[in-house]
Amino acid sequence: MGLYIPYFITVKEGEKLDGNINYKTILHTFSYWPKLLILYYKTNKIYFIGIIILTLLQGVSPVISLYLTQLFVNTIVTTKDSSIEGVLIVFLFFVGFVVVRDILGLIREYIEGLFQTLLSNHMNMLVLTKASTLEQEDFENVEVQDQLKRAQQETSFRPYQIFQQILAFITSITTLISSVIFLFQWNWWMSLLLLLTPFISIPSYMKLSNSEFVLHWQRAPRNRMSWYYTHLLTHDKAFKEVKLFGVADYLLHKFEGIVEGFYKEDKNLAKKRLQLTLVFRTLNLILMGFAIFMVAKATMLKQLLVGSFISYIQAITLTQSNSQHLAQSLVGLCQHNLYIEQLFHFLNMQAAQPQPNSHEGKGIELIKIESIEFKNVSFTYPGTDRYALKGINLFLKRGDAIAIVGKNGSGKSTLIKLIAQLYKDYEGEILINDINIHDYTTESIRSNIGVVFQDFMQYEMPVRENIGISDYQNMDNDDKIYESAFKSGISDLVKALPAQINTQLGKWFPDGIQLSGGQWQRIAIARAFFKDGSIFVLDEPSAALDPESEKEVFEKFTKLIDDKIGIFITHRYTSTRFADRIIYMEDGELNAIGTHQELMHVCNEYRYLYNLQIESFQEPAAVNT
Ligand SMILES: Nc1ncnc2c1ncn2[C@@H]1O[C@H](COP(=O)(O)OP(=O)(O)OP(=O)(O)O)[C@@H](O)[C@H]1O
């Protein structure tokens, strides 16, 4: 996936990104509105329509209020003492109007609060659902990470802010139109002047908003970095090393450096905004002062009644402030639109799903794996040009128990990742049951594979979920959970826990029990067994298991894979005795394959490494006398 830069940001060679503003840009930012409106409507149609109607009503209410004030005051001034009836009627109208307006205002506040929560939940669900469809390759791509971060940042508040701006826009425009019509009775050219002056500030504010956006857009990698330092300083696993190596101050300093940088940039922009606001506010105030002076003069010359004087002054203030609001909402809307574009860009993003050699997938559902064949498979990780696997030819069939050994970085885990279809773009072919792996649906392949990776997950959840999550539809089956725990040799421990399989594991949530590294690993192995797969892979289970546990796990593993395919990757050469065949990998290549005896004869490297390990075990222990 290439670098995504919003089209409205221009990149000049050798220069940093710059905001590029023109009317086409402004118009384009509104192209996401239909999608947004559908989104609002889908969130809750009754609330959505209700809010729009209430907003319109709220928009005309100031002018109704003005009209009633004018009527009220003029009626008092012109009515004779004896006939109070007319004044009373106008007064009751006025009071009735204020009560209804306030009640509608409260209802709007109530609905808006609920709508905001629903919208934020809906957006979060959309982003999380989208993230769950991404591939491993996407998560290793910094560009995608940045986009995800930006989308996450904008999700919870930006769509609602746009909604609020739209509402503010509707309110301002209705109030403005009605107040301008009201003022027209007095002086048409002054009304137009008051209406239009605030709009001359739009281009300057728009330019500033664009610079602000570009700045925030560029911040994503630094934002992720600051998040990472926060994570290191607050996460229990990282915290051990942070304490032990005494690096808290160092990390804090780095974090501080980033946020201080943000502060300086923000301060710069805030200063520019303040300068602009000062200039335009002064201009508007001068104009308003002039308009008020004209109304006052007309009243003194008896051309206007006192009621009209009061209401025209209010109408001038109303026109002025709403015209300013309108200009500001327009700028705000364009700015929010820029952010929303990146949110929709993320939601519309295609997950990485390359098909090698233009192989068209047939969407076959894989029921059971009988055999797996690698035919001259070579692979480089995306963004690298070094082969992690080179010309691999391998045939595995049901009932095979295979051990894979080799030095660090020789490609053992990569081989498994290709079987699990975590990466799909490679040279050569992988066949399952003699059919190209790409002809099967990825889901059906993955549902057949139970893998315990080196960096397996420790879910901060109860034992039941820790084991059953690999086939969560059957998570309620206690017998199956216990059976899997037994197969991984952890059933006695589980039974001894305070609430057995319902015991919370880990220390993040209340009543959690912390397990040792090896015990966590056995839970992860049970999770792989819980899934009724047809191939099981243990990637370096020996890393956290003591020799006795390892023996137990391997013995159970070899029994279990009776009619399945079992693969275990290990650095303990002594563990390979459980395997029918051993694969020795070196520098991405399959160097040798055979039984232990065969490899001892044909593979010098294997023999050397095996003997090295055996010798180290046979060295006499130093005894202090
Ligand atoms: N996600 C990745 N992106 C880029 N390169 C990677 C990635 N994962 C692994 N590699 C590279 O691919 C090569 C093979 O890695 P792999 O993890 O398969 O080795 P391994 O044999 O399992 O090593 P170990 O015994 O240390 O676990 C290494 O050179 C490694 O640097």
TrEMBL record:
Q: Which domain of life is it from?
A: Bacteria
Task: Specify the protein's topology with respect to the membrane.
Answer: Multi-pass membrane protein
GO cellular component terms attached to this protein's record: plasma membrane
SMART domains from the entry?
Answer: AAA
Tell me the ranges covered by the ABC transporter domain, including all copies. 372-612
- Is Transport tagged as a keyword? no
A Pfam family the protein falls into: ABC_membrane
Q: Mind telling me which residue stretches traverse the membrane in this protein? A: 46-68, 88-107, 162-182, 188-206, 278-296
Its main localization is: membrane
List the Gene Ontology MF annotations in alphabetical order: ABC-type oligopeptide transporter activity; ATP binding; ATP hydrolysis activity
CDD domains from the entry? ABCC_MRP_Like
Its keywords, alphabetically, are:
ATP-binding, Membrane, Nucleotide-binding, Transmembrane, Transmembrane helix
What name does the UniProt record give this protein?
ATP-binding cassette, subfamily B
Q: Which organism is it from?
A: Paenibacillus algorifonticola
